[in-house]
Every structure is written in C-alpha cells, then in structure tokens.
Amino acid sequence: MDDASREPERRPVMSPDGPVALRFSVLGPVRAWRGNEALPSGSPQQRGLLAALLLREGRTATAAELIDALWGDEPPSQGLAAIRTYASRLRKVLDPGVLVSESGGYAIRGLPDGALDLSTVQDLAERAERARADGEPGHASDLLRRALALWDGEPLSGVPGPYAEAQRIRLEEWRLQLIEFRLHMELEQGHHAEAVSELTSLTAVHPLREQLRELLMLALYRSGRQAEALAVYADTRRLLADELGVDPRPALAELQHRILQADPALAEHSAPEPGSAVAPVRPAQLPATVPDFTGRLPYVEELGEVLASANGQVMAVSALSGIAGVGKTTLAVHVAHRARSEFPDGQLYVDLQGLRTTRTEPETVLGSFLRALGTPDAAIPDTLEDRAALYRSVLDGRRVLVLLDNARDAAQVRPLLPGTEGCAALITARGHLGDLAGARLVDVDVLSAEEALELFTRIVGHERVAGERAAALDVVAACGFLPLAIRIAASRLAVRRTWTVSVLAAKLADERRRLDELQAGDLAVKAAFELVYGQLESAQARAFRLLGLADGPDISLPAAASMLGLPQEDTEELLESLVDTSLVESAAPGRYRYHDLLRLYARACAERDEQLPGERAAALSRLLDFYLATAAGVYALERPGDRLIEHLEPTAGDGLVFTDRAEALDWLFGEARALLSAAHQAVDTGELRKAADLLLATRDLAESGSEFKRYESAVTALRGAAAAAGDERTEGRTRTALAHLHSLAGRFREADHEAREAVRLGGSTGDSWTMGDALNSRGVIALYQNRHEDGEAHLSRAVEYFRALGDRPGEAAVLCNLSRMHLATGRTASAIALARQGIEIYDAMGSSVRGANGRYALALALTRSGELDRASDCLHEALDVFREGRQKLWEGMSLFRLAEVDLAARRPAQAAANAETALIALGGIGGEWRRANVLTVLGHALSELGQTGRAVASWNEALDVYERLHAPEAEAVRTLLLDGHRDRTYSVA
Questions:
Q1: pTM of the model
Q2: If you compute the radius of gyration of the chain from its CA atoms, what whole number of angstroms results?
Q3: 102: three-class secondary structure by DSSP
Q4: Are 68 and 75 in contact (CB under 8 A)?
Q5: Which strand ranges, in their side-by-side order, compose the sheet holding 61-62?
Q6: Tens-digit pLDDT profile for residues 125-169
Q7: Distance (Å, rounded) from C-alpha 884 to C-alpha 893?
Q8: Cα separation of 950 and 675, whole Å?
Q9: Measured between alpha carbons, how far is 24 from 114 in angstroms, rounded to an integer?
Q10: Are residues 176 and 206 in contact, defined by beta-carbon separation less than 8 angstroms?
C-alpha cells in the first residue's frame, strides 16, 4: 500500500483565518465538507470505504477487513486493487495526513473535535447522562434534542455492503434509545400531555418496543387517562403473545400493577431538583479478609503489581481460575484489601453466582453498582447497553477497583469492566477466561505442603499440632492441600477438644468416607464440586466420571479415548473442556490428571449417576485392553520372535502401534505408573489374567529399576488375588514374575520358592510358557546358589519346553544361562560355544537387547579363557545396547564385568572407574548381593592403586552385606581383610 508515496504533495486549503476544517456525516448520506464546501465522496463503494474508516474512530482497518465490509462473502477478484483505488481517490479529496496507510491497512486520523456528526452525538449523549445524574432533566432534554437533530434520514444511506447494513441497524437502535431517553426526561419535567402524541406515533411505528409503551402508559396515567394507560398494557400483552409468544417484561407488568393500585409515587416525577445532586459516593464493598490468610506470596506479589499498574494507565484486569475450594475468592479479597490505597474512589464487589442456575445477570449488577456510585434509581436506564455506558461514564476520572467473584464466563464479565484508566478489575472463575482480551490470567494452584500445614496450625492451634506434626501432614495431604478442605478439617478438629490430630488423620485415611468427612456447617468440599459438575453437558459429565475411575497418576489422550470408547478427536475436545472448567488438569501436552479429591468425587458420581449396568467395569476393561495391546506390541518390537505374545490373553480393543524402538520405549517408560496402576487395580475388577499378562509384557520396567517397587507391589497383589480366586494359570504366571523380581533383588531363597510353585502350577494347568520360564529361572537361581547339578537339570528341561513351543528367543536365553553354568563348573570351551549358539539365534531373530544378554554371557567365558580384549569388546557392545534400552540392571552388571576385565588386564584405575559407575547404575536395583560383588572388585582396584584405606572400607561394606545374606563370598572377603591378600576373585552373577 504505497500509493500515497506516488501522489504529489498537497497542503490544506487555507482561508484568511487559517486552515478550513473538514467535516463528515454518517447519520444520513455519507458526506464530506471543507468548511461549507461539499466534497465529492465518489461511488457507493468509495463512500462505504470512507464510512468504515470514520466509524473506526482512528483505529486501523486492514485491507481484508475493508474487503469484507464492502463485499462480505462474495468479494471481487480485484477487491484489493479496488480498495487501493478508492483510498487514492479519497486522499486527493481530503487534507494531507488525514487518510493514512499503516500496518497493511488504512485509518483516518487527526480530525478535530466535532468533525464527525456521530462523535458530536456521542458527546451530547454523554453530557445528557451527566445532566440527568446532576438532577437537570431540562438540560438533558435540550442536549438530546440537539443530538437527535443531527440525524438526516437513514444512516449510511445508499452505502452497500454487510458492514454498512449492520451499522445502520446499530445506529437506528441507538437513535430510538436516545428518543426514549429524551421522552423520559420530558416526563421527569412534567410534560406528560405533550409526550402522549409523540409516544402514540412512535408505538405505532415500533409496536414491539416495550420501553416506548411503558413511557406511553406513564404519560397517559399522569395526564389523568388511567383507562387508556391500562388499555395500552392490554394491547401490548395481546400483541406480544400473538407475535412472539411471550409476556410483557416485568417492568411493564409492575407499572400496570402500580396503576391499578393508584400508586401515589407514579403521579410525581422523580427527578431531583436542580442543585440537589449528591456528591459522588465512595463505595467500600469488599468482603472481610480472613485473619488466617496463609502463604500465596508469589500470587499476592504478581497481582499487586498488576493492580498498581492501573494508576495512570489503561485498566488492569486479572482473572483468577482454579478448582473449587482452591481459595480464589480468599486470595482476590486479600489482594484487593492490600491494594485499597491505590483506589481512593472506592471498591465494588459482586458475587456473580456463575455456577448456579440463577446466575446474576450483568444488568442487575450494573444497576447495583450505579446505585453504589451515587446514581439515583430514576436515572438508571433499563437496557444492558445503556447501563454499561452510564457505568463507564460515572467511573470516568475515578480510580475504582471492581472485584467480580465467581464469574461464569467472559460474556458475563465484559459489561462490568470499567474501561477507563486508573480503574482495575479482579475476577475469579472456576473456568479459564481465555477469551477475555487483555486480561492477566492466573491459574491458582493448591497450597504447598508447608503452607497447608501452616494454615491447619493457625486454625487448630500450635499446641495441638506441635506434638503430632506427622499426623498433621497426613491430614493436609488427605485434603489434597486444598485450602477449603484443610479449613473444614481443621474447623472440625478445633471444636472437638477430645480428638487428636491422629484421630482426624485416621478418619480421612478412608477414601470411601473422605468427602463425607470434609464438611462442617455450611462448608462442604462435595457441595463445591457439585456446583461445577452440575453445569456439565452429558458427554462431559460421563467423561469426568469414567476417567476418574482409573488409578494412575494421570492418563494419556489415547488411553482416555480407549477408556471412553470414543475417537481421540472427540475425547480431546471433552478433556480440554473439562480443563477449562478446572475439573481436570492438563499435566502435559496430551496428558490429563485429577486432583485427589476431585478423583474421589468423580468416582462417587460414577457410582451414583452411571446408569448402564457394568459401564464402570467396562471402561476399566477397555483401559486394561488398551494397555495390554500396546505393551504387547512394544514387547514384540523389543524381542522379535518371542512367543510370549502368542500366550497372552486376547484383547477386545487395539492399542498403539510403533515401528520405532525409541518411541516404543518412550511410551513404555512414560506410561509406567499408569500401566502398573491399571494392573494393580484389576485385583478389584477381577480381570486378573489380563493384568498378569500386562506385567509379563512389561518386565523391562522391573529390570530398569525405576519402577521396581511398584511392579513388585502389583504382582504380589495379583498373586494373592489369583490364589484366592482359584485361578491357577494366573497364579503361576504371577509367581514366575515374582521369581524374576526376587532374583533381580538378590533374594534367591524367595525366588526359588516362587519359581518352584510356578513350575507346579504351570504343569497342572498345561501352561507350557510358564513351565519354560519358571524352569529357566530355577536354573539361574541355582547357579547363584552354587547348586550346579540342580541348575543344569532345570535348564535342560527349560530348553526342551521352549523348543517344543518353537520359542527360539526362549531357547537362546536358556543356552546363554547354560553357558554360565558350564563356566561355573570349569567347562570354559563349551561355555563359549553355548553362548555363541545363543547369540546366533538372537541375531537371526533381530533381537538386539537379548543379543546383548548373549554377549554378556560370552564375555564372562572369554574373560575366564584369558581373551580379555575380545571380552571387553563384547561387554562394550552389550553396554551400548543396554543403555539404549534403558536396562539399568544390565548396564550396571556390564560395567561390573568390565571392571573385572580391567583388573585382569592390569588397568586398576579403569577398573575402579567402571566399578564406581556400576554402583551408580545399580542404585535401587540388583539387590545387596550384587552391590557387594561390585564393592569387592572396587576394593581390589583401589588396593592396587595404593588406596588401601578406601579398599578396606569397600571390603568391610561388602562383608557386612554378605554376612547379612549368609552368602558364601563372605569368607573370601574376610581373608582379604585379615591378611591383605590381593588376588583377584571373580564372582559370576
């Protein structure tokens, strides 16, 4: 838009008295004058462009907006060129610098006051409002006559386009409102008889406009024509019923009632006498702040800064959102009281009741606010638009803080915003008011543990909490650190002197009764949640109820979609709407979670409201199916050819499908807690077989170390449930998993017991996979316990089962374990051969992770045979694979074996470094026995480096472990400590 740069420089037209001012009109035909000289305004479209710019009052209109204004949905192909042409022609007519190009659009700037008839009307209307407020209806009436006289027929006459049509409707409505305003002022002056004629004519032209009919009724009544006034009401009622099927508005019905009662107040106009206007009122409506307000310092400082910025600047708006009971109102009131000195002209407050069926309407609030600001009732207009305009006018030049509590949405709030500099608004809402332009959005979180404890202590008393700090922390944790819940719990305790904090903690420990316990007087957590839940649509409510059934800490979008039985797009829309209402939190992109108390409430709603029989169980079953199907796919990707997948329970639904190994592992470890929670929850739902199979398919979680305890907890619970249910197949599978866990932790006696029972159960149920896996475990355990003959027998049977199943990876695993058994019994050459056979199978199947296990076994045999370089290569190759696969146990064990190789190769410094790194990798997994083995090797490396003190410390620590475990390795370490013997002893794990 550089057409201005191509035009010759022009100067304003001058008269002997200076520049001649431009004038414009839009309240009729769109016209322009320079002084008294009419200027050519061009074609209808060119006049449309001029009108669109004039009505924006100096704001820039983009080219796209102008094209839409002139042509709507059917713009010409050369629309942009046409806009540029019209702009260029207007520039030639107007003064230089009036029509400017900027930011890809146009604007009209630099017009003097009164240059546009519309602006003149706005000014006159505002002055009339002030005159009415000052008790001068005559002056107000005169100003309004002047304003209405500026209308010259239909606004924007002859201007095409959707924008002009919309503006014509708006301006005509405004003209009628001004007429009503003027007539109201006429009646206030007692000009009743004069007004009847005009009102009769107006009601004929606008028969459905109730404000005009109300004024006509009042004028007739005050003129002594009561019967006609009542007839106007009857006609209006009949007309509205026939045309719209509605009754007259309450104000009209009330006027009829007052006329029937001959209310004396109707006979007098209510305008105050001139000079009797009261001074502006300074409202102070803030509720009292709570004396035990606690914490929230970051929020208090942030909001305080925002409110302070309102002084001398544009209006500051802060919108606080958060779950029910999080303390939004308490925080807002506290901040508002702190900021009172910044707003010397007063503070307004209203509870908007946004979550109730009878929410407070903006018109009602504006009426209340205007009265609080000193506006007489008679001066308060009827419509929302008029009240909002008067409200902003009254606040102009004042510094007032407005606290809007419990807003439903941005639409309810917008008319209540001051809109002028120096004022500010604080808003609280359950949902996020993201569509409130210009607002600072603040998401209020629950209290920190220390803040929660401080609030609890302030209410209960320091002396009762001091001796039971742990119980008090249990209480606030059971309350989910939610301020409302803490306040209720503390209040209950405060009035029950015989209770201890521990008694209260015990009551809240029962999740089934917790929400019922969290009520005191008229305060109840459940009631606060119910207000929000009651506003949900049926699909939202169903999603809230069912997703709350899942035990995991959070839930992914795909898992949620499976649980609800909906497409992901629909599920995401539902979940995001629940986030907007603060019933669900967005934990991360694509992940959602519940506050603990909201989860309990969702489950209570599911129990109460879910109408379809079995729908709760079906939702949890769909979730378990999704997790099992996806985990099975990840397992198959990690272990190509492994036949376990064929022996898992079938699922009714599909899971996610991965082709990239890294993405598959990201899913597995990212969903670890959710997966294990779902498996554990199946103890209650009864889907034991699928849950047990899910644990078998996610064994990597146990070997990684990060979820060892949760995995163990889930599998132990399932084993007990399966035994109680008499489900021997599931019990056998859970015992194989437990045997593996105990072995990983170095608890070999317990591991052998579980494996032995698994063999028995697998045999009685004909579960060949369980038989092969359990026998393999028994063989490995026997190796660790130096029961070589038993171990070899178990492994020989295991390899037969896997071969019968056609499970080549299972066969390879047993061959590698047989390699270690041969190595332990001095058959090094056959140990090397067996390990290579296993590796050959793994490599043929494309199983890199299990191939790394084979290379680990081969490295042990190569170390024994003295082929240290080749052993080191095998271990480094395996180490890379274990790290990529996040196998912390095998990463640590590979480092341990590298330390042994380094010792044998006379590299003590490298051996010490690898041993130290192994201890880090094995933190939390592998058990104390393996840790003692690493410490023993570390002691050897340190001794060879001359660091005898550290070596002795390492050996002493290892000895303590061996003695606690009654391990045979204890004797060798005692010898090291007694005589300083430094011969290297290799422990084969």
A1: 0.65
A2: 41
A3: strand
A4: yes
A5: 61-62, 105-108, 99-102
A6: 999 998 888 888 888 888 999 999 899 888 988 888 888 888 888
A7: 15
A8: 43
A9: 9
A10: yes
